[in-house]
Specification:
Elements lengths: L1 E2 L3 E6 L3 E6 L4 E5 L1 H13 L9 H9 L3 E2 L3 H17 L4 E6 L25 H12 L6 E6 L8 H12 L4 E8 L7 H4 L7 E7 L4 H7 L9 H12 L6 E8 L7 H11 L5 E7 L16 H15 L27 E4 L4 E3 L13 E2 L9 H10 L6 H5 L3 H4 L4 H8 L12 H26 L11 E3 L19
Parallel strand pairs: 6-7, 6-12, 7-8, 8-9, 9-10, 10-11
Antiparallel strand pairs: 1-5, 2-3, 3-4, 4-15, 12-13, 13-14
Length: 483
């Protein structure tokens, strides 16, 4: 048996000794003696394993801390197969539909080049879209996100498509919408439930004086107060879905984030609303000053600062999610059945490609919709981290899945410079784990105080403290999170 290359053996001055394995996504807490045994195994290549008691040895084997020769390669191949199976899953179709690419805003960091294009989907294109959906004979689940441009500029088209889709004999998992919120008036809010829109994302980039310098009307002018009024109307309506407020964060507004978050959560207390920070990315063609962008390390530091200063804990409690695929929640870029549909029927494979002629993979008006097989191959095959020698040696591959597929392609295949596609875990794994341990221990202390009889009996000098894991091959749910 060998020491796994996906192990991380580390110590914390506050909390003790630990070993983490990325293949099993398991964290073990160790006393000094067991830590010393593992440290010896790590550097002496297993010479002292006979000195380890059988129960501990079984735990190490179960959680892949110790592996047999060739076992890791077999596991990686298995995960790669699961990854491909998910990408080529024919039972699901995920569509992000842009009824128009026109936008009534001129946000400073926007990555879309065609926001002045006033065209919207024609009735003919809508019919072709329905035919395109029906051509996928095996799908049992359909999910749709309304996107743009600004989708509410083509609200009638959105309603028309919804009516057509609802007439299909399909299980519709969800409708979501990404909107700037400026046109979300009471009349449109009243229709949301009938349109089956269960989630809405709206962006506010800080308090009024900050937001109005970043997200301005196309002809100039403030947008904050009207958006806030519309959110008020949404939250006081009979809308049954949820709302997410995204705050796009960079060096110019990062210090304003937490105050806005607290204000919004207090304002809409008890409502189905969340507030989260979004990372402003760099894209070719932006007029935005890239010097303002938080690099991957700065972005990680920002998120930890939110917890250290304000006690904000993410849903994951900082523990790695064990994602089989990548850090993208929607998986469109590498999915065989996930597409962005533009207003003229053009097809893309990533939200950030909408409106870019060189990233079109086909058009639904064609008898054979897919006309750029090379670009499709780049998206689904060339971005496969399991085929990248550097990634296969990286100790966080099993929990990052290769990072952002679109950015990986832009970097590795197209030679774009300055694009970071890796997961934050790559350089900060132990920082994330130590923060998780801190939260775990605090909760354990609270439980002991509230329930003194809940103490741990029979402590052998080691224990598993990672959260219960979901099935790694489970299909991740679409996430409406973008700039």
């Amino acid at each position: 048996m060998n020491w796994s290359r996906y192990n991380t053996l580390f110590q914390s001055k506050r909390f003790g000794n630990f070993v983490y394995n990325a293949l099993s996504n398991t964290l073990l807490e160790l006393d000094a003696a067991h830590y010393d045994s593992l440290e010896h195994l790590q550097y002496q290549k297993g010479e002292s394993k006979s000195a380890i008691d059988s129960n501990f040895l079984a735990l190490l084997r179960k959680n892949m801390v110790l592996v047999e020769e060739g076992e890791e390669e077999e596991l990686l191949l298995s995960r790669q197969k699961q990854h491909h199976a998910a990408c080529f899953d024919t039972s699901r179709l995920g569509l992000t539909i842009c009824p128009t690419l026109k936008c009534n805003f001129r946000c400073t960091y926007c990555f879309e080049p065609n926001h002045t294009n006033s065209s919207a989907m024609t009735p003919e294109t809508v019919e072709r879209l329905i035919s395109f959906i029906k051509s996928y004979k095996d799908i049992r689940h359909l999910s749709i996100v309304w996107y743009g441009g600004e989708p509410l500029l083509a609200f009638d088209v959105l309603c028309h498509i919804t009516e057509k889709v609802m007439g299909l004999d399909l299980c519709i998992d969800n409708f979501g919408m990404v909107t700037n919120g400026y046109l979300l008036d009471a009349k449109k809010i009243a229709r949301l439930n009938d349109l089956r829109i269960t989630s809405i994302q709206i962006t506010l980039d800080g308090p009024e004086e900050v937001h109005n310098t970043r997200r301005v009307l196309a002809g100039g002018g403030a947008t904050f107060q009207r958006i806030l009024d519309n959110i008020d109307a949404l939250m006081s309506s009979d809308y049954k879905g949820s709302c997410a407020i995204r705050v796009n964060v960079d060096k110019k507004n990062q210090e304003k984030y937490i105050a806005l978050r607290n204000t919004l959560l207090e304002r809409y207390k008890g409502k189905k609303l969340k507030v989260y920070a979004g990372h402003v990315n760099n894209n070719i063609g932006q007029t935005y000053n890239h010097a303002y962008i938080l690099d991957l390390q700065e972005w990680t530091d920002f998120n930890f600062e939110q917890h250290n200063s304000n006690g904000k804990v993410p849903a994951t409690n900082f523990y790695p999610s064990g994602n089989l695929h990548s850090i993208c929640g929607y998986q469109l870029a590498s999915s065989h059945q996930g597409f962005i549909v533009g207003p003229e029927g053009e097809l893309y494979q990533c939200w950030e490609d909408a409106g870019k002629a060189n990233m079109v993979i086909g058009n639904i008006h064609k008898d054979e919709p897919f006309t750029n097989a090379a670009l499709q191959s780049h998206n689904s095959i060339s971005t496969d981290a399991y085929n990248d020698p550097d990634c296969r040696e990286c100790n966080v591959l099993p929990i990052c899945g290769g990072g952002c597929a679109n950015k990986r392609m832009r970097t590795k295949q197209f030679g774009e410079k300055g694009v970071e596609f890796c997961s934050p875990y790559k350089d900060n794994l132990t920082v994330f784990l130590k923060k998780y341990i801190e939260i775990f221990r605090k909760r354990e202390v609270c439980e002991a105080v509230l329930n003194p009889k809940s103490g741990h009996a029979n402590k052998p000098g080691y224990r598993t403290i990672s959260p219960k894991q979901k099935n790694a091959s489970a299909k991740s749910q679409p996430a409406t999170e973008t700039d």
